[in-house]
Design brief:
It contains 17 helices and no strands. The protein has two domains: about 80 residues, no CATH class; about 260 residues, Up-down Bundle (Receptor-associated Protein), CATH 1.20.81.30. Helix 3 packs antiparallel against helix 8. The protein is mainly α and about 400 residues long.
């Protein structure tokens, strides 16, 4: 037993060399090391990774552990290999005189401007622990909301995927055997139902021109990606998403939730209203909301209140949101009011998500039923005709 314990003590979960960006150099390393570095440096850092980091950092800093020591410890125990390197680099830079927010600015592809701004405000006000807790909570809420949205999308995507696989299987394997059977039975094409003739046409197209179909599909997808890659295309696509029935209303609530939640958090962190408005706008993933919030910032510079600058866009910001923001501005309590709006909208998003899911489920069942009925009619009807012909 003692020998086993001695072996366990010698084990290490991770023997990877500590990597500090800007100091580490893999030019003299082997090809496998450089290849591993390439994959590690392109590993995605998720919202969940950041939420856990900020939460644990808040706990450690609140316990009296210095920031540098806390970041070093979290870097060693982070599972994401790229995030481990990012945190090790941040700890190294902090150990050499940089503030935590300044060290984070080097990784703008990892940390958003809003996150850096909240950390900077917490350091300046001496309330880093409290700001980190709020930031971790908001990131966790964002992660939970993303999981709910993906969870709602999985059902229709899975159903459509199964239908596509079943259809291809029927066209490639079942229908050719059926056609051979019908030809041997002497059934003419004129005797086949319309649904069967359509299925035969589709089958010939899929089997004979599958390469052309794939080429067209990938061509359309490539053209869409290129179009969406342009600023004009991205703006139009973001606008189109907001106009989709049911889904558009849900997305608008999600964007409002993110805006008011971030605005309230930044104002509570001590950022000026204009800066908080600017950072909240840049944190939006939808260009339409970015444009409107940027326009709002310009109007606020001219003396207009945030609520007044948003009231002309009820499609993006409902009137009740504008009214509550106005109450917050008039009572000089905008941060707290924004937080209350975000809590209320979190509930509305959850309720809307349930409604959308409850609508999609019967629609998908109806769609699947119609699809199966048409497929059965196209395949079974000629078999019945064949049995009739044989019987005569």
């Amino acid at each position: 037993m003692n020998e086993i314990l001695q072996k366990i003590k010698k084990l290490r979960i991770d023997n990877e060399e500590e990597v500090i960006y800007g100091v580490y150099n893999n030019a003299d390393k082997g090809v496998f090391v450089r290849l591993n570095d390439f994959f590690v440096d392109h590993t995605k850092i998720t919202i969940k990774d950041k939420s856990y980091f900020f939460h644990m950092l808040a706990m450690m800093v609140g316990s009296g552990i210095p920031v540098v020591r806390a970041v070093k410890s979290l870097a060693r125990h982070t599972e994401n290999p790229r995030f481990r390197r990012v945190l090790a680099t941040i700890a190294y830079n902090c150990d050499h005189g940089l503030a935590l927010a300044d060290a984070m600015t080097r990784f703008e592809d990892v940390f958003e401007e809003s996150e850096i701004g909240i950390v900077r405000a917490g350091e300046a006000s001496g309330q880093l622990n409290g700001m980190l807790i709020k930031l971790a909570a908001q990131l966790e809420n964002r992660h939970d909301l993303s999981m709910k949205l993906w969870g709602a999308a999985v059902y229709p995507i899975a159903v459509l995927g199964v239908l596509l696989i079943v259809t291809i299987g029927m066209l490639v394997f079942v229908l050719p055997n059926l056609l051979s059977l019908l030809q041997e039975g002497g059934v003419a094409d004129s005797q086949l139902p319309f649904a069967t003739l359509m299925l035969i046409t589709v089958q010939k197209a899929v089997v004979g021109y599958w390469w052309l179909i794939l080429l067209v599909v990938f061509g359309i997808y490539g053209a869409f990606v290129m179009y969406k890659g342009t600023y004009y295309g991205q703006v139009n696509w973001d606008y189109a998403k907001l106009r989709i029935p049911l889904v558009g209303a849900l997305l608008r609530k999600v964007y409002v939730l993110r805006f008011v939640g971030m605005l309230g958090l930044l104002i509570d962190a001590g950022l000026p209203v204009l800066k908080a408005l600017s950072v909240s706008g840049e944190a939006q993933s939808n260009h339409i909301y970015k444009m409107k919030i940027a326009e709002s910032g310009e109007q606020v510079k001219k003396g207009l209140k945030i609520s007044g600058s948003l009231e002309d866009s009820e499609f993006l910001f409902p009137s009740e949101v504008v009214q509550m923001l106005r109450v917050g501005e008039e009572s000089a309590n905008l941060g707290a009011v924004s937080e209350k709006i975000s809590i209320q909208y979190q509930k509305e998003v959850d309720n809307t998500l349930k409604k959308v899911t409850s609508v999609f489920e019967p629609l998908m069942i109806l769609f699947v039923g119609l699809f199966v009925a048409l497929l059965a009619m196209a395949i079974m009807a000629p078999i019945f005709n064949l049995s009739t012909i044989v019987g005569n």
